[in-house]
Amino acid sequence: MSQTRKQSGTDGRQAWSFRVATIVGIPIRIHFTFILFLAWIGLSGGSSGGASMSILVAAIFVCVLLHELGHALVAKKLGVLTRDITLYPIGGVAMLDSKPTPPQELKISLAGPAVNLVLAVLFFVYTQATHSLVPVKGGLQSVSLPQALLIANLTLAVFNMIPAFPMDGGRVLRAALGLRLSEARSTQIAGGIGQALAVMLGIVGLFTQGYVLMLIAFFVFVGASQEIQATVARSILHGHILSDVMQTSFETIASGASLQSAANRVIHGTQRDFPVTNGDEVLGILTRSQLALGLATDGETAYVAGWMERKFKSANAEMPLEEAVELFTQSDTAPVLVFEEERLIGMASLENISQFVMLEHAKSRGHAGPG
Ligand SMILES: [Zn+2]
């Protein structure tokens, strides 16, 4: 259905999908919901219809896979690598490793639907040659497999060219807008159209009790929203370094201090995590949760040195922010200690980064107003 870029942070997708093949060096993964989907179709169709329906769905997904490979191969030709391709019940996603420029994105996005158009022409020629093109009546049951695939590929090409995120057409639109507008603005426009479309689809689905339509509407809405957020955040982070967001007013605590003195600072100040020092040397970090654990276990007179985390995250003040966000994962949100020539000059948490994004976004919205 679409190609997307690697998002920063944790990668939860992989837990729910497994690799089934590797094509031209690109891992092909199948999401477990897709297997459930195939099984559901197989079972719900009964003993006779279910099997042929499963074959048709599997064949359509081969076409979806070819669509994604279309994206991936054109991307490869342009020097953009694809990390993997994952198949979901509502389509496939080719995960690109880096960010294409607008002209690259234009070509990469068009490649997928182009594959489906070529396949549609091939199936059309085949059905013509074998005279199996008969008028469609009574739904999919009465059409042959090549005919059904002709229709499916035409649908895939048309559906994906809808100019709204997260469809390929939305990327084409963004790339075209990106030639004149900023990436964030282009994404907001293409994403906004996607969200509006999703709401309309959802309403139609609600009134016609079309559950598949409602499901698609949900995925389109979520996909569009995520793309807007990620792009806006990334465009704000772009060009900034860690020292732009780090806290510079912070306290350190001596390794020989007591846990009670650390507790007092947490209570009477706003800082939650403290770099632990011995003279000029940074030994570790005392987080609030470790402090609480230490107080509960060893009492208030215990030394900070005994409860600090010796393994702490550190980074150079010059580190680009796009790289720095990768240091924070869902399981490890502890602050990063920022050094400049071996000297501790700041601390940065995910909160610092999100505040920075929020305030910079507010500034850019101010500029984007009328006039
Ligand atoms: Zn696509």
Topology:
Layout: E1 2-5, E2 17-23, E3 26-31, H1 32-44, H2 46-77, E4 82-88, E5 91-96, H3 102-129, H4 145-160, H5 168-178, H6 183-208, H7 211-237, E6 253-254, H8 259-268, E7 274-278, E8 281-286, H9 288-298, E9 313-316, H10 321-324, E10 336-340, E11 343-348, H11 350-367
Parallel strand pairs: 1-5, 3-4, 6-7, 9-10
Antiparallel strand pairs: 2-3, 4-5, 7-8, 10-11
Helix pairs in contact: 1-2, 2-3, 2-4, 3-4, 3-5, 5-6, 6-7, 8-9
The structure holds zinc ion.
List unreliable stretches of 5+ residues: 5-13, 136-140
Q: How would you write the strand order of the largest sheet?
A: 1-5-4-3-2
The number of distinct β-strands equals 11
Number of helices: 11
Ends apart, CA distance between termini: 38 Å
Amount of beta strand: 15-25%
Q: How much is the radius of gyration in Å? A: 27 Å
- Mean pLDDT score: 83
Output the keywords.
371 residues, alpha/beta, 3 domains, three-stranded mixed beta sheet, 53% helix, binds zinc ion
Short description:
The protein is α/β, with parallel strands linked by helices and 371 residues long.
What would you say this structure looks like, in words?
By secondary structure, this protein is an alpha/beta fold. The chain folds into three domains: 1-161, no CATH class; 162-238; 242-358, CBS-domain, CATH 3.10.580.10. It contains eleven helices and eleven strands. Helix 3 runs antiparallel to helix 4 (145-160). The two termini are 38 Å apart. Bound molecules: zinc ion (ZN). Residues 1-3, 67, 71, 112, 160, 168 line the site of zinc ion.
